[in-house]
Amino acid sequence: MKRIALKIDVDSYRGTLKGVxxxxxxxxxxxxxxxxxxxxxxxxxxxxxRRLSPARYHDxxxxxxxxxxxxxxxxxRCVDSMRQARDSGCEVAVHAWDRVRWExxxxxADNAWIEAEMAQACRRFTDIFGEQPYAWAAPGxxxxxxxxxxxxxxxxxxxxxxxxxxxFIPVIDGEIVLCPQLPTTLPTxxxxxxxxxxxxxxxxxxxxxxxxxxxxxxxxxxxxELEGMCFLSAFERLLIAWTTRGHELLTLRExxxxxxxxxxxxxxxxxxxxxxxxxxxxxxxxxxLPPE
Length: 292
What we know:
The chain is an alpha/beta fold. It has helices at residues 13-29, 45-49, 74-77, 79-87, 99-105, 111-129, 145-153, 189-194, 200-213, 226-230, 232-244, 252-257, and strands at residues 3-10, 35-39, 91-96, 135-136, 158-159, 169-172, 175-176, 218-223, 248-250, 266-274, 277-287. It has one domain (3-286): TIM Barrel, CATH 3.20.20.
């Protein structure tokens, strides 16, 4: 039996309004839970859709946001959906203020810009949920040194900003950041489809087997705009298969809560390409000063 934490990135107005309630209903029907990471500022998805395939931005209306239509303020217009996720027993946390802008600018942004973006998102989270955020997950696994340092300074209990194999304490440029990272360990459905060599059904079949092939706990990242909408039935098949095999589906908070943070290994982080994603993403690197 494996433990699989479900990390749901919520990137857009449509994803929050439509995808989140659909996923909440699906999780409740199958006795599962998950962590929802919300974007709170303007949805500028239309600007991004000019560069991406229709498989990622299938909704015609979404492609107009930030172009022909005003960018809707997600953290104002979708509060009910956000609170529905919280009230269902799922974890809620922070993804970004402006998700499109974060992915485009964060790797090279200066400290002031990073701090302003993270502060806006955290303030809106507190306005909506009445408490300080517990966790942060950088959009697209794109981030920089100052953002990592802020996860510690903001008092977050964990972050999920990278790809990797297991929970760890991050080290960047020799600096230890005392905020644990829970990396995404499994490929995403859209990454498996990116090469154009397999169907959605084949991608699901590969994901069903993946946890058993790799030791340890896992984090699976999905998106409200995909698995909550056009891939909803595919995600349901995946949920059923994992639960049938006895895997425990839980939140990231539950996953890190079961670990002794003091004993987590320290790993350097690196920035590199990953299959199915353009640009540089943060990944878990080598152990930092491992025992000789």
